[in-house]
Amino acid sequence: MKAKQGLSTKCVHAGKTVCGRVAPVASPIFQTSTYYYPKEESAGYIYTRIENPTQEVVEEKIAALEGGREGLVFSSGMAAITTTVLSTVGEGGHLIAFEDLYGNTYTFFKSGLEKYGIDVTLIKAKDATGIGRFIRKNTKAVFLESPTNPLMRIVDIPKVAKVAHKKSVKVIVDNTFATPINQRPLELGADIVVHSGSKYLNGHSDVISGLMAGNRENVQEIKELRTTLGGCLDPHASYLLQRGMMTLSIRMAKHNDNGQRVAEFLENHKKIDRVHYPGLSSHPDHELAKSMMHGFGGMLSFEVKGRRKEANRFLKELKLLLAAPSLGGVETLISVPAETSHSYLSRKERLGQGIKDNLVRMSVGIEDFQDIKRDLNQALSKI
After folding, report:
1. Taking Cα atoms as reference points, which of 76, 71, 29 lies closest to residue 208?
2. Which residues of 92-110 are buried (b: 16+ CB within 10 A; e: fewer)?
3. What sign does the CA torsion over 214, 217, 220, 226 have?
């Protein structure tokens, strides 16, 4: 019986390119748009929009890490989400989605899918236990994030999957915040997992990309639509992404450690009203998070005392940490969701989801904790 490899080993070794008798240690970049047919050999690769050896290295790596049979890489996280949902649900179908979502995903579900003949029901994370009452005859999929963006709520994936599968409904999980190092949704019962590869998987804030993984049938159906829509990732970006994924395990260990320490520091700070982090015992989903996650990650959010003015003043006073959108890089990034990731929502929608004007989202990097703490402290002292 073949020994099961650990995740750190898979980060390094899954997805290797062999070129005939040449086996490079570092996977090469196949920077080509098309391929010719040598002599009488049958056609293999045809066109990079369909497939490319450098893309396949990434696809094999994400499949191995998530425990899927196959994977796909896309030109962005939103390309991965939109293509996956359109393929899985289809015209005339019904999608159930938890409304605690990245702003662009929420907007696409709320106002974009109807253009493709897809009906959507948006529910709250707390409704996970009763999700069965939202399932219709034409329901094709349930979509969720866990942890959610930006309030870090945890959805009971096994429970959702159990109810959904009784009605032959597929479960799609956005695992961007957790990564497969901290959580593997397919092992928890999900059918498809998606990622913004721009975030933790790449980890260096220099590539826009998306990924998905699942069983062969699901992946092949989604691949057909990716080929048609054209949301593939170019070879050079694919190379950078797979190189970043090789160090995912060791980076996440530092993100996990720093995230926990920063959350505990902020929870006891006099200028902070509330901290949202699943690793804190005060978090409403802490016990559920412990049952599904192997680490709590580097994402957290907190409410500064005051209003949006104070939140923005805090960002302006930072010296080392960066006031910027996005997340998952080696550097610490801090933003106000009302002005960045969730600016597409009306104020009423944001408040309805619990996203206050004074909420700050923090992607804790891998800098020394004392340096992060020092900068947070001096910036908070100015508000």
Report:
1. 76
2. ebbbbbbbbbbbbbbebbb
3. negative
CATH code of residue 31: 3.40.640.10
Nearest of 157, 211, 215, 218 to residue 188 by alpha carbon: 157
Q: Please compute the mean of the pLDDT values over residues 15-23 and round it to a whole number.
A: 79
Q: How far is residue 291 from each of residues 53, 279, 285, 323, 363, measured CA to CA in Å?
A: 37, 12, 10, 33, 23
Work out the burial of residue 2: count CB atoms within 10 Å of its CB; fewer than 13 is exposed, 13-18 middle, 19 or more buried. Answer: exposed
Domain extent at residue 16: 8-245
pLDDT tens for 169-198 read: 999 999 999 999 999 999 999 999 999 999
41: pLDDT confidence band, cut at 50, 70 and 90? Answer: low
Q: Are both 235 and 255 inside the same structural domain?
A: no
| pTM, two decimal places | 0.96
Residue 67 predicted with pLDDT over 60: yes
Question: Do 150 and 252 belong to one domain?
Answer: no
> What is the predicted pLDDT for the residue at 40?
62
Position 42 scores a pLDDT of 61
pLDDT per position as a tens digit, 283-315: 999 999 999 999 999 999 999 999 999 999 999
The tokens of 347 are what?
Answer: 């104020």
Do residues 121 and 96 make contact, with C-beta atoms less than 8 angstroms apart? yes
- State how many domains the chain has: 2
Chain segment 147-166, per-residue pLDDT in tens: 999 999 999 999 999 999 99
Active site residues: 49, 102, 174, 199
174 has which bridge partners?
145, 194
130 domain residue, yes or no: yes
pLDDT of residue 1: 56
Let me know if residue 27 belongs to a domain: yes
Distance CA 169, CA 96 (A): 10
Stated as kind and residue range, the H or E segment containing 370 is helix 369-380
Which of the listed residues 245, 275, 309 is the one where a domain comes to its end?
Answer: 245
H or E element at residue 272: strand 272-276
**Integer Cα distance of 50 and 140 in angstroms:** 26
